[in-house]
Amino acid sequence: MNMIKRKTGLLAAVATLVGLTACTEWDDHYDNTVVEGSNTTLWQQVAERPELSDFAEVLTNTKVFRQHKKSPVSYADLLNGGQSLTVFAPVNGTFNKDSLIALTQTAQGDSAVEMFFVKNHLAGTLHSAADTTEKFRMLNGKYVSIQRDNLSGIPFGDNNLRSKNGIMHIVQQQVPYTFTIYEALTQKEEYAAIGNVLKKYNEDYFDENASLSSGLVDGIPVYVDSVVYEINKLMNAVGQLNDEDSTYYVTLPTTAGWQAAWETALSYYKYSADVEKADSLQHYWTSRALLDDAIFSKTIQRNMEDSVKTYRYDKEYPMYHVFHRPFDNEGIFGKAKGMNKCSNGYIYYHDEWPFTPTQTYFRKIEQEAEYTWNIPTYTTDRCNIITRYLNADSISRGGYLDIVGLKDKWEVTYKLSNTLAGNYDFNIVVLPKTVEGPNGNKRPCKFKATINYIDEDGKAKTYNCGGKAFTTNPNKVDTIMVAENFRLPVCNYDRDNEKISITITCDVNAKEATRYNREMYLDCIFLRPNDK
What we know:
By secondary structure, this protein is of the alpha+beta class. The strands form eight sheets. Strands 20, 22, 23, 25, 29 and 31 form a six-stranded antiparallel sheet that branches. Strands 21, 24, 26, 27, 28 and 30 form a six-stranded antiparallel sheet that branches. Strands 5-4-10-9-8 form a five-stranded mixed sheet, covered by helices on one side. A hairpin with a 2-residue loop joins β8 (about 150) and β9 (about 155-165). α6 packs across α7 and α8 packs across α9. The radius of gyration is 32 Å and the shape is elongated.
């Protein structure tokens, strides 16, 4: 799951300071390494250095958050306690002390200062400056590297200052905070509309089994180590955009372009009024429609200069999710208006959504005839259905359904899954009898088609495809359009039901039997988007 936040040493130290658990329990469970060579605490070292007075004030005013709630414990208290930390203290004049302290007066502002500034200068493990380069995480999860004289290129004024609960290095400027892609989308004004969509799906999950309990107080469990997962259903599907250990390439419009594309996609994912949580489904799948083809993970690409596959790439549908020559002038990255570099990848931004609906979510829907589990009903007393397989280029996926008419009228109905609210051309593909050999029956098939659908209120409707009979060409693979530019008023995307379907009816009486064949080799049914 993305954005995993394990509240370990820091939260347990907070728990000690606010009286939730005993100090001995904390010391027994975690390694509070004592640093030899000093009897002072990290806080005392910071407070004693005149050039760190601004940093000291910010630490005093910034409170620690526990389970997303502001605690009474300041970071000055934390650095004066028993938790082992490495501090990278920026000197006066390298950041705006007054602005930071002003922010800490509200819970939201304090949380921001904690995440983007204070935790960006603290590490939960001990790190000395040495000749070798060491890479590690700050308390906020950001990666940095330390060498003898610098932290990620920021020079030290002094280093390896040891205290009894850690090590301090004095840095000559503020450690810059680099957004992840998720943070950029949720923090930058130009992406506000996208960020609001992503944040909607954030939720906390408390893992009781992984958390360490210290027992019951008044019958209520008390935990010295609360493991909380901040999960996001949407990002779990489209890409872990807050993961510092991944590299993503994202191509998206800024707010105005996103809003226009959103309104368009929203109209395709309209559910009928009788669908439970229709608005939530519409919002989720509209979000997915715009994001599924916008996010690319570097780890699954062979050669990004040649082509890229989206994070949601489905090898069953290679015509979608793949974009060639992405960095060329007309490629999905190359034609971007600009690029933002993030800690875990890149955002290529556009004024408008860089796709069309038929390139991404408004797709051809194909129903293989041999997939009989998609047949909710057929006239069992009037026909037999037999699944057959034959490896031939002209046969879709190497299979078809042999429908053998036993009487003058038979019907077979196929449910149509994942349709959107939009205009489609409905097509039926019938194979010639010669696929089984040169002596196959040369009489054509005659049939009618009925589209079964629902309106916006969820009421069943039918369209009899012009009320006419269609005749197949017995000498070739015949694709017959039974309905052109027919609009489905609502979608059934991700819905397991039979409300949207197509019925094929063959009615050949005794007098017509010498002219038409009651047996049909049905290859597939497909709906082609018609966005004219």
